[in-house]
Design goal:
Structural class: alpha+beta
Radius of gyration: 42 Å
Shape: elongated
Largest sheet: 9 strands, antiparallel
Number of strands: 9
CATH superfamily of the largest domain: Galactose-binding domain-like
Number of domains: 2
Oligomer: single chain
Length: 251
């Protein structure tokens, strides 16, 4: 280059840099960050983290913009802001790997009186039948009705549950019953009965016999009640209650 030669500006020197609207740029960045984060947080139901991260990002934005307005060096703060944004996005967008501490409700199976006709039970056989005191009276839930025997002993009746049940407690209200045997079956049909419980009841003059039995191995589909003997020529059963739970339907 010689003295007097015309100096041609380089392309860099002639290129005009347009002013950047940093206010708009930060607003767009903050908006995109908030949208991305909130969408992910809403989907993962982490609403608390959404509020915290939005607040932190807003504070960082205000700090950076306030520094920019004062004409200070933005490079350190921009790097810090970029790091914080990246970290928060990572926290917000990554799946949660920790075990949830949500409370799990444990539902207990409801115990009911399985022998009630309203629960689907049915007396499918009875060796005695009186029009005024039919066998259905034992499972109708009415304490004023009862089934009465006619003739000699033993007498029996069979209750069908129409499902598999697990019996925990039996309560039999009767009158004049001396010896009672209970058999159970887990078959789909009223067959293959096996001995289960046998009790000698105490006669209570003028009062109903209230026999309560805590059952073991109470899985059944049918129960057979056999009145082996009585304190009189006739006996009556006022109610049969079987507290327990339904296990499954017959299939």
């Amino acid at each position: 280059m010689f003295l007097g030669d015309k100096i041609t500006p380089s392309p860099i020197e002639t290129h005009r840099i347009e002013p950047i609207d940093f206010n708009l740029a930060f607003k767009i960045l903050h908006y995109l960050f908030s949208v991305c984060l909130s969408q992910n947080v809403i989907q993962s139901k982490r609403t608390t983290n959404a509020g915290i991260l939005s607040l932190v990002s807003s504070i960082n934005y205000l700090l950076v913009w306030d520094t920019f307005k004062d004409g200070k060096d933005l490079k350190p703060l921009l790097c810090q802001f970029s790091f914080i944004v990246t970290l928060h996005l990572h926290i917000g967008l990554c799946p949660v790997t920790t075990r949830s501490r949500r409370k799990i409700k444990h539902f207990k199976m409801k115990k009911t009186d399985l022998c009630l006709s309203s629960e689907g039970a049915e007396v499918i056989l009875a060796t005695s039948s009186d029009e005024k005191h039919p066998p259905e009276n034992m499972i109708d839930g009415n304490p004023d009705t009862f089934w009465t025997t006619t003739g000699m002993f033993p007498q029996e009746f069979i209750i069908c549950f129409h499902k598999h049940v697990r019996i925990e407690r039996l309560v039999i209200q009767s009158y004049f019953v001396r010896t009672l045997r209970i058999e159970k079956s887990t078959s789909k049909e009223p067959v293959d009965f096996e001995p289960w419980i046998e009790r000698d009841l105490v006669h209570t003059e003028g009062q109903l016999q209230n026999e309560e039995i805590m059952a073991r191995d109470g899985h059944a589909t049918y129960l057979r009640f056999i009145i082996i003997s009585a304190f009189d020529h006739f006996a009556s059963v006022h109610s049969v209650s079987a507290e327990g739970t339904a296990v499954s339907n017959l299939s």
